[in-house]
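Whether sequence alone determines local backbone shape is best considered at the level of individual chains. The sequence in question and its structure tokens are set out directly beneath this paragraph.

===
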Amino acid sequence: MARDTAAKLSDWRFELAGAAPPVAAQRHTRRVIHGRVLDDPYDWLAAKNWREVLRDPDALPVDIAELIKAENAYCDRVMGPLKNLRKALVAEMRGRIKEDDSEVPEPDGPYAYYERFHEGAEHPLYCRTPREGGAETVLLDGDALAKGHDFFDIGDAAHAPDHAQLAWSVDDAGSELYDIRTRALSDGLDRADVVSDSDGAIVWQANSKAYYYVLIDENHRTAQVFRHEVGADPAEDALIIEELDSAWFVSLHESRCRRFAIVSIHGHDATECWLIDLRADNPTPRIVAPREPRLRYDVEPHGDLLYIRN
């Protein structure tokens, strides 16, 4: 095996020596910043329409796209001789892990929820079983949903407190913009209302009629928390929290006790947390501690107490 590998690497070096990499053109751009002149010959490679490109990769300027294609072709040429070696290494690494694996089930009401992988799978199965015993139900099949997509990533899959619905988010373009769909577990069909441009996180209200999510703005910043009523037009979603400072970002998760949605607003060296009561239909968010320079903290409710770590 070692000799074969050495021979393959030797052949690869020979082929690499004759492969000429693409060379990006230099188009000098000069800027004056704080009195200093900066010359950037490759500024043109930063697409000025990057916001549009994130949503539609075909909008990438032709000259940039052609260079990327040339780089990919060069990579295919120089790495081609190592194709079988790469396959052998992947097979060896996969042989050392348990592919047919399942995470520890999380009990909630009459069911236990969990993710599991079957051998050869790229994406998980989202499943549940009755806690009193019974057959497994697959709520979401990642591999089946990914068919036909060059890119596919499930951001979150959150069952509703009524155990009759599943909200799940997906990015099928590689833009890190997730669409959220709501699936009826009685028939496995998704409803028509789709929330677009979220960061993927989902937190249900206790009444199972609505969920909270974070919207990504035109500058690709997580800046707003909305509440979506299931079945309603997403254009009518209620704005709950908005961060106007472009240096700060918003994230969302559910507390372990499932009583609150925790909104964390974080900057370079500080955080600010808010609590949203999931048992209330129209709650007012409550701040835990206002932001201060160099103060980072997170929070976790437990019973009647609020644990704060900074």
